[in-house]
Design brief:
Structural class: mainly alpha
Oligomer: single chain
Radius of gyration: 27 Å
Largest sheet: 2 strands, antiparallel
Helix content: 40-55%
Distance between the termini: 82 Å
């Protein structure tokens, strides 16, 4: 049996920013391309030279998808644009002008009894729909879970729109010491029963802590704007913590301004 190669944590200088140890998007894309190239049969992409071109184009789209910045998206139309799925021996007139490709070159989309027949417009549209759905499935149900299962994806405090990919073992080596410190100095552990009693007794809900790289350190943040389901009404969302505390925050801000005015008068 072949022995598995162990992955070692990269060495980090204390003065090196944490983001320097992230895996480059190019390497992440190469890993995902290699996996998908094995998973997807060549015949999926069509016949002959078009199959090679389509596969290569899809792999390039993966590279583009992984290089996207935070909040940027890739549409299904962009994913399929440029693919050649026209069979030069049949139905040259069946062109999908919206996406600049023809669908009759991908034979697995056609029922066996219709392979020798001319393709109708409705059949072309249905094949295009199936092909687009499968491409969406490849990205949404295979590519994205593949990335999540191997990398922790995050932004940083200094680069809010750039996306960083950390191997899970590398990310864990940063997070565990910080979480131990937070538990010892800032947080207090309570029982599940006590936590449920506190939540039941007030409108304020709870939030999860997330750590962001900030230079050579990790910064804990929480999302207090997130709306959670109302207890007993799972389909209805309640107000976020920030919205509940907004009146109290406004009062404190006014008190702060008033306190500053009183100090200036007595000064």
């Amino acid at each position: 049996m072949q022995r598995q190669k162990l992955l070692h944590l990269p060495r980090r200088d204390p003065d090196t920013p944490i983001t320097e140890l992230a895996t480059s998007p190019t390497n992440v894309a190469s890993f995902c391309q290699a996996v998908l190239k094995i998973l997807i049969p060549r015949g999926f992409w069509g016949c002959g030279l078009d199959a090679s071109n389509n596969e290569l184009l899809f792999l390039k789209k993966i590279d583009h998808f992984i290089s996207l910045r935070r909040f940027e998206t890739m549409s299904l139309c962009e994913l399929t644009r440029g693919m050649k799925v026209d069979n030069e021996h049949r139905d040259h007139h069946k062109v999908d002008k919206a996406n600049n490709y023809q669908i009759t070159n991908i034979e697995w989309l056609a029922p066996d009894q219709l392979l020798a027949n001319k393709t109708s417009l409705t059949d072309v549209q249905k094949r295009r729909e199936l092909f687009n759905e499968f491409l969406y499935f490849l990205v949404d149900s295979i590519l994205i879970p593949l990335i999540r299962s191997n990398f922790y994806v995050t932004e940083s405090s200094t680069c809010k729109y750039r996306v960083f990919f950390f191997r899970h073992d590398v990310w864990r080596s940063f997070v565990e010491p910080v979480m131990i410190t937070l538990k010892e100095k800032m947080l207090e552990e309570i029982s599940l029963v006590e936590a449920e009693n506190i939540i039941e007794s007030r409108r304020l809900g709870f939030s999860h802590i997330r750590l962001l790289p900030k230079g050579v350190q990790m910064r804990p943040i929480t999302n207090l704007r997130k709306r959670l389901p109302i207890r007993g009404r799972s389909k209805e969302l309640g107000p976020g913590i920030n919205k509940i505390l907004a009146p109290a925050h406004t009062v404190l801000q006014l008190e702060k301004v008033g306190l500053g005015s009183r100090k200036s008068e007595h000064g």
